[in-house]
Every structure is written in structure tokens, then in C-alpha cells.
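User: What would this chain look like folded?
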Amino acid sequence: MPKLPTEEQLNKLIACGGPILSLKLWLSKETGMRPTEVHSLLVRNIDTEHNAVNPTTAKHGCGRTLIIPPNLTKSLQAHIIKYNLNPNDKVFRSDAKKYGNDFRGMRKKLAKRTNDQSLMTIRLYDFRHFFATMRYWKYRDVGLTAMDMGHRDWNTTQKYVHLLKILEMVKDDEWVCKTANIIEEAKTLVEHGFEYITEINGTKLFRKRK
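Assistant: Here's the prediction, encoded as C-alpha cells.
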């Protein structure tokens, strides 16, 4: 069973990398792409019009289209322009091995500088595990999660279902709960990242992680 880092830890690692390493880590967090897939990504695999990437799936997995935040699309576009990349060029040079080495070097320096040794337990692949678990948490759909992960075998995806169940049993106190009685209230909560849970006596219940 993979260990799941917190989003705060991942964001800290993303923020402390250099420009290219940070961009790779951000892409890994938002798409769950394997390190080899990040380094196989071509410029033409990025759909800037629809804020999406279409990675070449590793391990004989299924092809997939992954939606990314608009600001990540803009950062990728800026990177492409800066390095004058053509449609058939790889977005990132070097390879997955160097990606891992760069990540571990940065992680070690950050853990020492902040005196936070918990960062040393976070692996590069944990960005993928985080994506998968949050994907299932959002949609509660094993098939959709498997599709976004590029899994052909849904049994591979089941571990994230079990991981989420464990987290929710352990971290029930890490939620903020809100209610809404009218559309505008519900709209405001959704805009602030709250997830709709259910409705009781006409009142809609929402929650969001602290």
C-alpha cells in the first residue's frame, strides 16, 4: 500500500524546485503521469485550447486525456516558447532518471533547511499516488480513476480505494463542513472547493479538507 503525502507537502516540494523541476512536479501532481511519461511528453501532446495533455502511456497502459489547470497550461506554453520547442520536440530534455535524481537532491536540501525529515519519506511516485487517491475521492468511480491513471487492470486501481478508506477513518476531523439552502450559497461553496455530499430536509451538505 503506497504512503500518501499531504497536499501541503507536495506544494512545498513544488515551490522549492528550480523552474523546470517545479514545472515537472506540478505536472506530475495535476496529472498523475509517471516520470517516464513526463519525459516522453511531446509539445503536440499538449492541448492548450482545452487545457489538456495526452501522454504516451507507459507500461502498455490505456491512452488517456488529462485536464490541467489553465495556469499550468500557461506555464507550459511559456516553457515551450522560452526553449523554442517544435511540435514534435519533447517538452523536457534529459530523462526520467535525472528527474528522479534532481527531485531527491532538492528534497534532501529542503528537508535539511526546514528541519522537516518527513519530506524524506516522499517519493517521486507519490505525486502519482496522490493524484489517483484524490481522483477517486472526487468521483468515487474506480473505472474513471483507472482510465485517468492509464490502468488496463482495475485491480491495480483498487489500492487507491482502500487507501482512501483508511485515510477517511483516520482523518475524520480534517474536514470543514458547510450547509446551503439556496443556489447562490451552494455556488459559492463549490467555487471555494467544497464537495457536495448529500441533502437532508432541504439543506445541502458540503465538505472540504482543512
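The chain has a mean pLDDT of 83. If you want, I can go into more detail on any region.
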